[in-house]
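SAMPLE LOG
Freezer: B-3
Tube label: C17
Construct: single chain, 109 aa
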Amino acid sequence: MPGLSRIKERDKLKPRNGDEPHWQRLRQGCYLGFRPSKKGKRGTWFARAYNPDNGRNSRKAPGDYGPLQGHEVFNQAKAKAEAWADTVESGGERSRDMQMVRDACEAYR
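STRUCTURE (predicted):
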């Protein structure tokens, strides 16, 4: 499995049959994928997360990274994939930080 955080390794990747991305595991049930462009452009990033409600993986393209370069692109894609996976794993609503009983009561409503 390639290390998508390594720019030189990522640049050497070839497109796969069926346009399947190259995946890197971030944590259990959460993956970051990269599909190299067939036209020599930047390529496309993907997030994949296990959805416990339906027992299947969900996939999302987290967006375009415009002017970002190199490690900045990976870091941003990784952060978006992890945040989206948190949402999928929590049933579609991202959990808030609970610091006080009042926070838990407001979230319960």
